[in-house]
Amino acid sequence: MFVGVPFGNILGPLIIWLMRKGNSPSADAHGKEALNFQISLTLYLLIAAGVTASLMLILVGFLLLPLLIIALIVGPVVDVIFMIIAAIKASNGEFYRYPLTLRLVS
Fold it and tell me: Which end of the chain is more exposed for a tag (fewer CB within 10 A), N or C?
């Protein structure tokens, strides 16, 4: 997720969506959904890291550190799984709504 290009998980869908959104309403809808999911997942992980780091100042955050490490490992796996599900649905002509996604791009 954060390996390679910083925020590449957001830049990739953004660039592809901007290039393809005029081709069809389906491409526009799928692109927005993928972009919203990537932004949401990034925000969730950044908020979790921020809360853990700020709580570490009062020594409670050290208890949350293992959970943050697990989230940083599980997050990209869940990301890939949902992207595969969305790709299969899109190839079948169906629309897929990612779970727990904030609708920031509309």
Answer: C
Domain residue limits, the chain: 8-91
* pLDDT (0 to 100) of residue 89: 93
Sequence-distant (≥ 6) Cβ neighbours of residue 82 within 8 angstroms:
37, 98, 99
Contacts 24+ apart (CB under 8 A), 67-71: 71/45
Q: Is 89 helix (H, G, I), strand (E, B) or coil?
A: helix
Q: What is the rounded CA–CA span in Å between residue 33 and residue 6?
A: 21
Buried/exposed 28-40: b ≥16 CB within 10 Å, e otherwise: eebbbbbbbbbbb
Which ranges of the chain have pLDDT less than 70?
A: 1-6
Could you tell me the two tokens for 93? 């002509």
Backbone angles phi, psi at 105, to 5 degrees: -105, 120
Tens digit of pLDDT for each residue in 70-94?
A: 888 888 899 899 999 999 999 998 9
Kindly report the pTM of this predicted structure. 0.82
